[in-house]
Amino acid sequence: NAISFTPTAHALAFKDGERNGERIRLSPEAVEYLDGEMQESELWRQPQRRVVTVDNLLDLGATHYAFVPPRVDKGGFDSGDAGGFAYWLKNGETVYFEIMGAGEVVGRSVFPALAPVTAGMLPPSADEKALTGQASSWDPRTWTRRAPIVRQEVPGSWTARNSCQVTVARLMVRDPLHPVVLRGLAFAPRREVFDTVAAKSIAQLAFDTARPCVLLDIACRLANIACLTLLARMLRERELWGNVVLYVMFALWLRDVLREACLIRGYCQHKWLLEHHLFSRQTITEFFYHTMTLLVLIWIAVCASEGTEHLPDLMRPLVAVLGAMSWMGLLYMHRCFRFLRLGLRILPVFQALWDVSDFVFITSFFVLAGAHAGYSLSPAAYSTTEVMFSVYRLGFLGDFEVESDVEYSNEGDGQAGGSMSDLVPFQYMSFLVVSFVVAIAMTNILVGAMSSAFDFYQERASNSFVKHQAWLGLDHALLGRGASWLPRWLTLVLFGVRPPSPPGNDVLWCCYKAEAVEETGDTSQSVRTAIWTLKDEMTLAQSDAARKLDSLTKQSADAAKKLEELQGKMAGFDELAKRLGNFLDGHPERDVTVEHETVSCAWGTPRKHP
Fold first, then answer.
1. Model-level pTM greater than 0.70?
2. Residue 507 carries which DSSP code?
3. How far is residue 420's CA from residue 405's CA, in Å, rounded to a whole number?
């Protein structure tokens, strides 16, 4: 921006690539122009042919692209008044998309410290006066139906201590909650995107819109946990109290399955099912959870139809797994809440656990190796399960007993000190190796790997939080579109989702601290992360200092060169003064006299001397 030197973000709108009903193609002269050498006089506007790296464009057959400047007329090809982008396809063809318009994404205005802070979706006609003083006098009917006004006062007495300079920004993009916008934000490949004001504002608005749906999901999960608790009590007492628990669990299961079907339908409408939803970890976990729930329900129904009063014990492991998954799912549903910094705490934990899953898989081979050695050196009275649990206690808990876990001898097995006495040295040797490799080496490596992974994701918790908010908003938007075949009241009751409204002229406003205000640091930052951050800051400061030193060195060299040039010119002046003195010596009758403040020359006109 040549006026303010402030970087801005713009969104480009393109035409459909057709003109007069025909696809716009580049002429041979235009292709030669785009492939030509850059001209120094047109360096700022001359295009350069580059390789396409976007996956979606590569799938469509695009190989190269180039920006075409405005008003390029080559061989019948006209780039238009705003220019556009040209693409080269695998089949040798070229297509051109003309820019239809461009608009600034975020417009910023800085305000002084404000006492009442008003946040919400403002109409496009809002001005600075309305923002600062007359927001309360607006007609409520002019506010958008999707996000009504919310007024929040800062608690306590209003002093300079709890006030700060704020920046009010307006996003110029219409309909920021469209699935295309949320999808581009949720799956953005660059981490810097989530640090922008526009990304945080859109993600927060998307989650605020999806909040009723999330709260309803949490309530349903709590009801399911209560049903599983009652079912576990029935299994403990081996009695079936009735079919109420069965009916409630089936209703909750049917609601979850219907919700997933509508969500899949919404993803299919945009052709994003295989790319973003079907094979995600959350979808696979939910599928496994719903399958096990259906198996338990069918089992209970069979037992009730046969008149069996005693429930089988084999159902208890399934109920135990379902209960554990329900609690973990309930915790994961809180990943987008700012209350008590829940989202910033939950996401690094889950991401670190998933990140070290491959290392846990590697560690399991060491445990199996120790269990195999223990099984070979133990008597027949020890089962495989007992040997593996003994190795697990030794490796991860550091709990063992010499008689039962090292010598594998019990007082009542009849084999202690007898035929197994010859294997005692080998048993102790196996114990030493397993204790060192599993209990000391692998356990400490696993702890270090988990600590490093947690620090890594804790440092990026803010970016991940914005990403998951946008992702949750995308699911909410697609759920509303996928459930359009259901009645509106049923969609609102079952899922807490309103049907999608047609795109309007709503504008998103956001208010945040000015850039000059210093933010408080994160107290949860580890020492390792703090050292890495300090190292990066020192590296940047060192490079900045080196750059400034190079600039000063260059300026000193330029000053020395100019000084030499000035000395050369002064030498010329000395020669001129010498010649002038010789000239005056040769003409004594032309003297110079000073009378008061008037300089009189024999051959000149008197002039005032200051």
1. no
2. B
3. 14
